[in-house]
Design a protein that fits this description.
Blueprint: E1 24-25, E2 46-50, E3 56-60, H1 61-66, E4 73-77, E5 82-93, H2 94-97, E6 107-112, E7 117-121, E8 131-136, E9 139-140, E10 150-152, E11 165-171, H3 178-181
Parallel strand pairs: 1-5, 2-11
Antiparallel strand pairs: 2-3, 4-5, 5-8, 6-7, 6-11, 8-9, 8-10
Length: 199
Amino acid sequence: MAIVSRGFRGRARDEDVALPPGQYLTEDFPVLSAGPTPRVPTDRWEFTVTTEVGVKHTWQWQDLLELPHEKPKVDLHCVTKWSKLGTSWQGVSLDVLLEDVETAADYALVHSYGGYTTNLPLEDLLDGQAWIVHRYDGEDLTPEHGGPARLLVPHLYLWKSAKWVRGIKLLLEDEPGFWETIGYHEYGDPWREQRYQGD
């Protein structure tokens, strides 16, 4: 049984656009998942930031909608080698969500409905680099693409932008997530082609 969706093979690199090494350009939005797609009703959705000492900061769906929103337009780069340029999103910056969170943490472990996790340095979620997004291309985010809300960290490979996000645990020491425990790179910079451990 395949652990990711089938049907994705490398293609010739597009020479007329600036893409990270080994990537090809796509106009569609491929769907890849490590398991079944969770269906999370917004009346049961919540997002929790838990500090390294166990303090919890929780937002319900309506709380999220009432926060200041941004509309980032970003390029996406998947570890399976496709890139999609100029994607349009709407959501809340992690700077807003973490503004009143007191922490000495250097790392974050992101948790999703369905059990998926991924790790990131905390600094990669700050300074306008990451969002909790709930709209894509002017429409509510579909479950296949991580709806009702997903993390968006476009400067890293897309597996770091966890779908169906439900929380972030702040950590003093790094802790690998789902793909990282089975050989994917701890960081995942597409411009340095950090796909797998040792890259």
